[in-house]
């Protein structure tokens, strides 16, 4: 579904953010992107939707190659990619409904966008999405009156109303408390499964990543140094991604998490009469 080959991003200073990244993502697959600050995670995500221009390499979604598109074709390309931002990126003075419907701007004409006139089907879809993300009845609230978790839910609904093929999620839990972080991660993963959406989730919280995401990609200094099942993320892998450190406390948490998940999967057979 998504194929990245030899992706390179370098700057005029000579600094390189990405060094020939190769990555494949199947339809409906959701992966976690982890790594230290400055590893190139956000750059990788922004190169995919060309908020950052790649220096070289190719990015293909389906059968469309996206790194050499002109402005008109790029607009259509970005319609295929939903984006959820760390800082929510809402228009504070607009209502929840208006923020969600802004996800349809790429599908409307200029004047309809200017006057924020939306099709009745889009409005109905927005109501459905607000109910699904737990914000039913809040459509007329201004964005600046919402909590962090509520803002992120608006951002999720806005991304999904695009009807994208691919979801890019940049640090969705960085500004949230632990309970809300788990709720948001569960919501994103559930929605991707329901809609058959592929997604890349850039996340710093390794424990949260390995709990909710079956495949983990580790980035270090602009290169992929690990790509495998979450169950294989151990002290050695963490050292490879983040550098040498005492990871024993974190790996104990990972082991406890996996043990708990295993216990939950055990099915007690029914006793025969």
From TrEMBL:
InterPro entries to which the protein is assigned, alphabetical: AAA+_ATPase (IPR003593), ABC_transporter-like_ATP-bd (IPR003439), ABC_transporter-like_CS (IPR017871), ABC_transpr_PhnC (IPR012693), MetN_ABC_transporter-like (IPR050086), P-loop_NTPase (IPR027417)
Cited SMART domains: AAA
GO CC terms of this entry: membrane
Record's keyword annotation contains Cell membrane: yes
UniProt GO molecular function: ABC-type phosphonate transporter activity; ATP binding; ATP hydrolysis activity
Keywords of the record: ATP-binding, Cell membrane, Membrane, Nucleotide-binding, Translocase, Transport
This protein's encoding gene: phnC
Gene3D superfamilies found in the cross-reference section: P-loop containing nucleotide triphosphate hydrolases
One Pfam family in the UniProt entry: ABC_tran
Residue stretches making up the ABC transporter domain: 2-246
Name of the protein: Phosphonate ABC transporter ATP-binding protein
Annotated organism of origin: Orrella marina
